[in-house]
Amino acid sequence: MVDDNPNRAVSERRLSSGGWNVDTATSPGDYVDYLRENSESELMRRTVAARLRDRDVSRHRAVLDVGCGVGTHVRLLADAVHSHASVLGVDRSGTMLQAAREHGGERTRFVRADAHALPFAAASFDLVWVERTLVHLADPLRALREVHRVLAEQGRALITEGDYAGALLDAPDEELWRLLKSRWVGRLTNPALGRTLPRLLSEAGFPCVELFPELRTLAGVQWVQRAFGLHRRSQELIEQGLATEARVEAFWAELERRDHAGCFFMAIPFLVANASAS
User: Fold this and answer.
1) Ramachandran region of residue 151, left (φ > 0), alpha (ψ -120 to 50) or beta?
2) Which of 90, 108, 215, 247 sits in a 20 to 30 Å window from 172, CA-based?
3) pTM, 2 dp
4) 3-state class of 139 per DSSP?
């Protein structure tokens, strides 16, 4: 799952267990469109395909994607694992699962479930995939213990989470950026999840973990504004007297100028964990 929500109606409503309640949003389709655009971009598809290739997942036959969203990674996993493998995606959002099923493949299935209490027997899967999901959960440690429980003895989990609190921006106004960033990450349940992932995996019972850092650059100003709701956050600063309208306009105008000149830079650090069940 991803990050902040481009639709304010979505981003103002949280599930009782933490995260965004897509199903009760005013326009849930907006979030589906955004997530599909993000996860199915050429850059993201190449990134995920390379990760699967480098970790050699071709032998796995029972695969689970926890927090599958619109199902993009389920389909990529189905292409990468054993030809007779089944790939199951779970998400707590019925809206997301409906979108995922619309583009599902022959060897893919989707089930509505909470990551905190997976409805599967112990040792049911030899590969579990988790991508940008723990950041939204009320209890990521509990979810990781569930991942460990459903993994077979020789199974492994591939988990990728971002450290949004460590987001980097070449900002024309550092003080204004700090204000915007604090409001953006403050709406995430676990904004610094990436940096805590090694400790959480250890506490969840994973004895052997390989870690691989990634720095993901972001496409441009409009995408950043949409993905993280920063335009709305800017308006909040103006309304609360923390920044003038002229200052905010100058901030975004300069970032747009840099974007058009090809020198805009924003990036988020991610951590990829290859965790063995035993």
Assistant:
1) beta
2) 215
3) 0.86
4) coil
What is the rounded distance in angstroms from the CA atom of residue 22 to the CA atom of residue 10? 6
Report phi then psi at 136, rounded to 5. -100, -5
How sure is the predictor about 244, in pLDDT bands with cuts at 50, 70 and 90? very high
**Number of neighbours of residue 211 by Cβ within 10 angstroms:** 12
Secondary structure class of 152 (helix, strand, coil): strand
Tokens matching residue 22? 């897509």
Q: What mean pLDDT is predicted for residues 211-217?
A: 93
Both tokens of residue 60?
């796995």
Q: Where are the beta strands (DSSP E) in the chain?
A: 62-66, 86-91, 108-112, 125-131, 151-162, 168-169, 208-217, 266-276
The b/e string for 77-100 (b: 16+ C-beta within 10 A; e otherwise) is bbebbbeebebbbbbbbebbbebb
Q: Which domains does the chain have, with CATH numbers?
A: 8-165+190-218+268-276 (3.40.50.150)
